[in-house]
Structure prediction request, 98 residues.
Amino acid sequence: MPRPPSPFDSSWRPSVREDVDFRKVGEDWVLFDPLTQRIQVLDVTGALVWSWCSGAMDVRAMEAEIRQAFGAALPAGEDPGVRKVLREFAEAGLLRDP
Prediction:
């Protein structure tokens, strides 16, 4: 039986907790965790990554999408920040266990 991918592996398909509220408030995208009663304000990368965390898209595909979305604004070879955002989500307990 194949081993499931570890978190932050390129093949990992992260999935968010369904009880976390994600919405646009004014000009900002925010998450509200009902368990901790905490709000997290997201930048554009964070909002995009959150919206892709359905369990259908792997980390590699998210990184490719960010590179495509930001094009020339992201220097070649630069980390697009997807794993950093996912690590922040995981540390805050916002993702389902892999």
About this structure: The longest helix spans residues 59-70.
